[in-house]
Design brief:
Number of helices: 2
Distance between the termini: 58 Å
Structural class: alpha+beta
Order of helices and strands: HHEEEEEE
Radius of gyration: 18 Å
Length: 103
């Protein structure tokens, strides 16, 4: 019974988080300014640009997610949750949002 209550609480937390994310995404402009960089230039920046703390992109880092997005052969594949608050663990690519520069 306690596990069921905990799962229900986690599901409600996930719904609340998803609703908050949808609300924030609605604020994002739908059309971006013309993007003039080629894919090779963007990849070069990701691979070589550094701020004061290191590279701005980290590839294939382990990460935990509140929703499972795993797929096998295009079909959803449910994970074993790594802990009660997170439903999925898989590798991810991280891009820094704020860069720290030094003078």
């Amino acid at each position: 019974e306690l596990q069921k209550l905990e799962k229900d609480r986690v599901r409600q937390d996930h719904r609340t988080c998803a609703a908050r994310a949808a609300h924030e995404m609605a604020k994002v402009p739908r059309k971006l300014e013309p993007f003039t960089f080629t894919p090779d230039e963007v990849q070069d920046a990701f691979d070589n640009y550094r701020d004061s703390y290191g590279l701005v992109v980290a590839y294939n880092e382990p990460a935990q997610f509140q929703r499972c997005g795993c797929r096998r052969n295009g079909e959803p594949r449910v994970c074993v949750p790594p802990n009660p608050e997170m439903w999925c663990e898989r590798s991810a690519t991280f891009l820094k949002v704020r860069l720290v520069t030094f003078m």
